[in-house]
Amino acid sequence: MTETVGTTTANADGATATRGGQDTGLRLRRVHTTEGRHPYDEVTWEQRDVVMTNWRDGTVNFEQRGVEFPDFWSVNAVNIVTSKYFRGAVGSDKRERSLKQLIDRVVKSYVTAGVDNGYFATDADAEIFEHELTWMLLHQVFSFNSPVWFNVGTTSPQQVSACFILSVDDTMESILNWYREEGLIFKGGSGAGLNLSRIRSSKELLSSGGTASGPVSFMRGADASAGTIKSGGATRRAAKMVVLDVDHPDVEEFIETKAREEEKIRVLRDAGFDMDLGGKDITSVQYQNANNSVRVSDEFMHAVESDGEFGLRARTTGEVIETVEAKKLFRKIAKAAWECADPGLQYDDTINDWHTCPESGRITASNPCSEYLHLDNSSCNLASLNLMKFLREDGTFDAELFAKSVELVITAMDISICFADFPTESIGDTTRKFRQLGIGYANLGALLMATGHAYDSEGGRALAAAITSLMTGVAYRRSAELAGVVGAYQGYARNAEPHQRVMRKHAAANDLIRTYHANDTAIQRLATEEWRRGLEIGARNGWRNAQASVLAPTGTIGLMMDCDTTGIEPDLALVKFKKLVGGGSMQIVNQTVPRALRALGYADEQVEAIVEYISEHGHVVDAPGLRREHYEVFDCAMGERSIAPMGHVRMMAAVQPFISGAISKTVNMPESATVEDVEEIYFQGWKLGLKALAIYRDNCKVGQPLSAAKGGKATATATAEPVVEYRPVRKRLPKKRPSQTLSFTVGGAEGYLHAGSYPDDGLGEIFVKLGKQGSTLAGVMDAFSMSISVGLQYGIPLEFYVSKFQNLRFEPAGMTDDPDIRMATSVLDYLFRRLALDYLPYENRAQLGIFTAAERSAQVAADYGNGSSDVDLEGLRTSVDASPQPAADSGSGSGSGGPTSVTTVETDATGRQVGSSTELLELHLGKAADAPLCMTCGTKMRPAGSCYVCEGCGSTSGCS
User: Would 92 be classed as within a structural domain?
Assistant: First the structure.
């Protein structure tokens, strides 16, 4: 919905730009907004209190009360934006307190830069741009990457990029400068990648006659630097990528670096050292702060295919100094990845075949998450759209609205380069000359499920490909229009022919999309038109940007937009952890599920029954009324029916031809996968035209809390470690032990509780007498007492029993004769709350909500002395929560309003409460998930691309 007018002239820097009268620039039309009404006036605002605690120990990590947000923003989104993106010292008058302030700070900076650099035809067009951008951010339609929210409009340097690629040459000055530049980027919270292949190998001589150290040796110094900067105050690991070409003479040493260190971790762990992620002893292990990737060529992959030989070449002369068997080298790569998830692969010839600027240099490396691939010493500015915002109620995707939104976002992204600051002069120079952008999306997994598509299906891949093609087609078409207004990128003239060739390749790939439904057919038809228009305008104007799109992890910003899924990922699981307004949390079946069921033709009664089943079991297998052919629609990344590894690879292959860069994604493989399986995944990635690929085999790492899969151990080609089986030991009570006997009455039923303790404290046995001798009730209570006593002696915590049996309801129930517990919902409810009062410390009881009468009186005096009408008096009297449970989070802006099954958060087998969707999933799976704990708030993170994101506070393990 734009027009461009003006006359093209030349800038001093050689780039073309438009000069003209007052009508020169972009002419914009309103898409989401209404003339004469500001976007802020169209929503209802409310005050929220943000108090974020560490899930493990209850300490407060962040607190800001009275912040202002729209009423449809979820608690999680509000918490993350307030804690991560509001600027100013907490508690000061300068601290931002409203989403309006945050959006205005960023949007007004973009508008001012757009006006100053001649992007808009009139002031009215600038106002439309401001209102449209504000509306989309306010309604969570898209988000810029985190550095924009951190820096734009503040007194800090205006850094807008999250992804950086560095370079290093074969000189000591360059290597030391690499350490320095990387440190500056880490200090700013971003990540960087580089290729070490220019550094001569350890098999070559120095000019002085000595032997070179080789790149792996210098990796140690960089790794130590990254670890030191991380430990100097950051809350996450430094994010970095190290790449080495497959023909480098030191490639075998590079391949095995992390696998050898992983073996060292196992030995140290077994010796009693703390080797968990963040453990005090893990710092003694090297190479843990980087992702490693081998850059493979078509020549090498063909040699693997034909079982041929491959030459390793000297860096100084280019001559072959060693010949290896390609298949054996490929096996070493796969075996190392099987053992420790590194190295990944980057397919060099595929990457450079899609390179728009080969005359300015080859693409040799990527950012840490592998989605940004371009020239050395460059950066990429990211933004992602929320695909679910374009799904109509009738289940069709609004392609026209999506195209208009992409126009606006890509325009804003390009404007940011006009005022952006960069960590080094060389990165700033390259980025301003080539203006690389990375528009992408999130919520693809939710969109596919909501439209009734399985993630691993031809229909799902067709829809994903069509949307991705439309996004990149519109982005490049707008880039060509911008070139006609403010000039093509400075490096375009030199790269005009290859850039046009790559545009034709994208358009040709679009023509090959095979569509299956009216939905993807309509999207592909519009994409075809956009590519046609883009090629036509680009041939006339050139393009403003050397790169337009990537698929990033969208970790923190995905939570900001209330997305169910990140980047290109499928749903993690069908149930998730949800925070509530006013505190607390609950388990909820994903809102996408009922929408998907309706799209598949199920009636409301069937939907309700299936959702109820999913809430209880965590999966759809044997759900009442659900047809088996529809099971695949609800397949997730983890759980009872997890998507097969090749399903992830095929989805990546479907969208890769329509991405300027690459895709941040790790292909998860089961623990039972073999080295041959890893080889097949890596080989198929090359065959299917991917640019980069990484795998993670369940339980292959020690340095994070990982699982023991339900299946058997993988045995194929790697030597399995001896299995050490740990069994609980029963600690029997001595012959003479302290004990107490209590008489009680519950609802008129009289009984006795005998409790025996260990001499060094701690409950060890119970006996309950209830009912007449020889009655069924007395026999059942004897058996129950015996089982509880044995469990206590085997080490099951009393807290676990209390959490399970308190509030259990059955007769007899009612009044008791105990002044501390006036009401009980059953005999077991009374008994275990009484045991808690007698044997558990106050801190443990407080978490369970169990207090003595004196403690409750003190609470009332301290907390409710003002006579608040919101006090649950019955709950305070009895320690039983008598208040009604909320049905759903009223602050959520997502969902279709359908039936939603909600239950309070459960505890796992050890009595530990869950604090995230990943931990909730562990309850259903009965095993631990492959994710690290958040270093800020203690909850288990969830996968986001090739990184991890914390649902509680928004922290990520990589570049966000």
Answer: no
How many CB atoms are closer than 10 A to CB 174? 13
The residue type at 405: S
pLDDT tens-digit map of 284-293: 777 677 889 9
More confident residue, 21 or 301: 301
Q: Which of 163, 340, 357, 369 is catalytic?
A: 369
The letter for the amino acid at 100 is K
Whether 261 is a known active-site residue: answer no
Task: Give Cα 855 to chain centroid, integer Å.
Answer: 42
- Determine the residue type at 321: I
* pLDDT-based confidence at residue 708 (cuts at 50, 70, 90): very low
**In 10 A of CB 388, how many CB atoms?**
24
Q: Is 883 exposed, middle or buried (0-12, 13-18, 19+ CB in 10 A)?
A: exposed
- Determine whether 369 is an active site residue: yes
The pairing of strands 291-296 and 344-347 is: parallel
Evaluate if residue 265 carries a pLDDT over 80: no
Residue 749: predicted pLDDT: 86
367 is catalytic: yes
**Number of Cβ within a 10 Å radius of residue 93:** 7
Helix (H, G, I), strand (E, B) or coil at 851: coil
Let me know: does 437 contact 548? Beta carbons within 8 Å.
yes
- Hey, how many other C-beta atoms are within 10 angstroms of the C-beta on 867? 6
Looking at the 3D structure of the chain, how many domains does it have?
2
| DSSP helix/strand/coil, 7 | strand
pTM over 0.85: no
pLDDT over 80 at 905, yes or no:
no
d(CA 160, CA 748): 70
Element (H, E) at 858: helix 853-863
pLDDT at 3: 54
H runs (alpha helix) in 139-203? 146-151, 172-187
What's the chain's average pLDDT?
85
> Which residue is associated with the tokens 């923190």?
556
- CB-based contacts of 1-8 (< 8 A; 24+ apart in sequence): 1/28, 1/29, 1/31, 1/404, 1/407, 2/26, 2/27, 2/28, 2/29, 2/407, 2/478, 2/481, 3/27, 4/481, 4/484, 4/485, 5/121, 6/484, 6/485, 8/484, 8/487, 8/541
Domain boundary at 853, 878, 903, which?
Answer: 878
- Give the domain-ending residue among 841, 858, 878: 878
**Residue-wise burial string across 271-282, b where 16 or more C-beta atoms lie within 10 A, e elsewhere:** eebebbbebeeb
Reduce the DSSP state of residue 56 to 3 states and report it: coil
pLDDT(302) > 90: yes
Say whether the peptide bond before residue 70 is cis (omega within 30 degrees of 0). Answer: no
Q: Give the domain range for residue 747.
A: 739-794+808-878
The catalytic residue among 130, 204, 371, 481 is: 371
pLDDT at 951: 77
- Which of 76, 367, 386, 668 is the catalytic position? 367
What is the CATH classification number for the domain harbouring 294?
3.20.70.20
Contact between 546 and 435 under an 8 Å Cβ cutoff? The reply is yes
Looking at the domain assignment, is residue 211 inside a domain? yes
For residue 556, being part of any structural domain is answered with no
